[in-house]
Structures are given as C-alpha cells and as structure tokens.
Amino acid sequence: MKKTILTIFILLCCAGPAMADALDTFLDNINVQAAADRHGAVASIGSHFGVPYSDVELIMGTTGSLSDAFMILQFGRWTGLSRDRIMGVYGSRKGQGWGVMAKELGIKPGSAEFHALKSGDFGYDPRRPYGYDDKGGTSKKGGPSDNGPGKGGKPDKGGNSDKAGGKGNKKGPGNSDDLLPSDQGGGKGKQK
Q1: pLDDT greater at residue 9 or residue 73
Q2: Residues 132, 44 contacting (CB under 8 angstroms)
Q3: Is the N end or the C end of the chain the one with fewer CB atoms within 10 Å?
C-alpha cells in the first residue's frame, strides 16, 4: 500500500510540469515566437488586433514581454476599456494572475471570455506565420478569413471565375477583349 502511494506521488510530481495549463502554453508560445522573430511576432499581433506596430512595441516595453502585451490587447478587445485602465490593473495585479485581472476588469467567471482565457483560445496561433489559425479566424495576412472573392468574406454569389471577384459575367457590349473594328478608333469623340 505504501509503495503504491509513493509511486503515485512520484508520478504526480514528475507529471506536474508536463500538465501545463493551456493559457501558460499559449503565452509561452508567443514568447518563443518573439525570441525567434521579434519584428514578425510584433507585426503579427498588431495585425491580429488591428493596432499599429508601434503600439504593440510600446505596450511590450512597459510589460516586458510580448505575451503580456497580447493579453493587454485581448482584455481591451473583450472589455472595450482603455489601455490606460487595463495597464493600471495590470500594474497593480501583475503577480496575481490573468484570472484576477479579468475579474477586476469586469469579465465574469463562466463567461465565454473567461473560458477562452482559461483555455488559451483566442483565435490566434503563435506557432503559425502571421497568427493564422486553422479555425478560419484570420487569414495568413492577419485579416478576415479569405472565403473567396466578394464582400464581407462571403463567397462570390455569381459563380464568376474571374480573379477580380467583381459582379457581372463579362457579357454584353464593351466587355469583350476583341480588338476594335477597323472603322473605329482614334479616340477623338463625336465628329460632325
């Protein structure tokens, strides 16, 4: 009996670090990305949140890590609060964890945002170039998902196969690629 308990205890002690929380893993991946390619990582996060590169750099300079800057911007997206307000909470609660900060910023435990926080699911994958995720959250360029040509990320309804993605079917006068007839041309307008 004692051997069994001792074996379980040793296994739990060894497996503890391997059972890292999803949020910690996500944030560690952001910092690894920043160490490998700082400029690309900062640009990717700026693109993800729609903020200038210089703003991400400024927040990163204040917090000391790109992962913390990511969380500041994520809290701003969720709450709509100013960065100054979020940075104030960050400064006073930094050592207490992201959950404590989230509660102070008005994110309720049990909410979709709080669950996303705990699971590290922000629609951004720091292991992929430009934060692309397989869920269709952002494109490889960091913008909305590319579902094909057309407005609002919706596929083109006309079934048009031209690369421009515009409306119409290229039929009718003036839309042909044929050369002008020999009796036309010159471009001088109406002649009397």
Answers
A1: 73
A2: no
A3: C
